[in-house]
């Protein structure tokens, strides 16, 4: 369970954490946009509104950003639909990736102007923000005995090369930032059916495979435990206190504020 904000050090800014359960991609995207707009409007009005971190498991969907290469989608939209998935052209950075059951997706809606990293970096350094997300995922993987981290020049989190082969991507990332407020985020493969990735060239990287915690550990992993550890590391990496909320509370207290 997340501690209420008032029980954490007063110097920490606050984030509301909401587990949305299983949800269509478009619905979660719409909610992100409303939260991002509310955070921008609150800053302009001089009000203090908490950051948000959304957790969700999507129904099967392939998403591609504006700079993505359609050539990395190996099947037609009709063929994807026949397999039970949709294709969404979204506004995040990055190329094509897959979201679906067995994956934990985290969408931090963060006002970077209010973030202060422990190493002194300014919050509005986008690259430092991405590094913070990567550090949180790597720390989560480490808690389950999986050695993962960054690769220079490649966004996301990768399992280190070993006797099984070269580096393997375990977490994809792609964000959008408007007036220093972020949306979109990361997708950590926990118990994901990795055969879905056979329909694309994931993130446009043809010379590396994808993996999951379950694939690395040789069996299913408790997703709830992974989710809780991930949230703890995300809050720590961003220097935030956390408190849980329902979707209805988000809509009333942040979007409707």
Task: Walk me through the structure.
The structure is a single chain. The chain is α/β, with parallel strands linked by helices and 257 residues long. The chain has one domain (23-255): Bira Bifunctional Protein, Domain 2 (BirA Bifunctional Protein, domain 2, 2-Layer Sandwich). Helix content is 29%, strand content 29%. It has helices spanning 25-44, 77-82, 126-143, 213-217, 223-238, 247-255; strands at residues 13-23, 51-58, 61-64, 86-89, 97-99, 103-109, 148-151, 154-159, 168-178, 181-189, 209-210, 240-244. The strands form two sheets. Strands 1, 2, 6, 7, 8, 9, 10, 11 and 12 form a nine-stranded mixed sheet that branches. It has a three-stranded mixed sheet with strand order 4-3-5. The longest helix is centred in the first third of the chain and has 20 residues, at 25-44.
Describe the structure using short key phrases.
257 residues; alpha/beta; BirA Bifunctional Protein, domain 2; nine-stranded mixed sheet; 6 helices; 12 strands; disordered N terminus
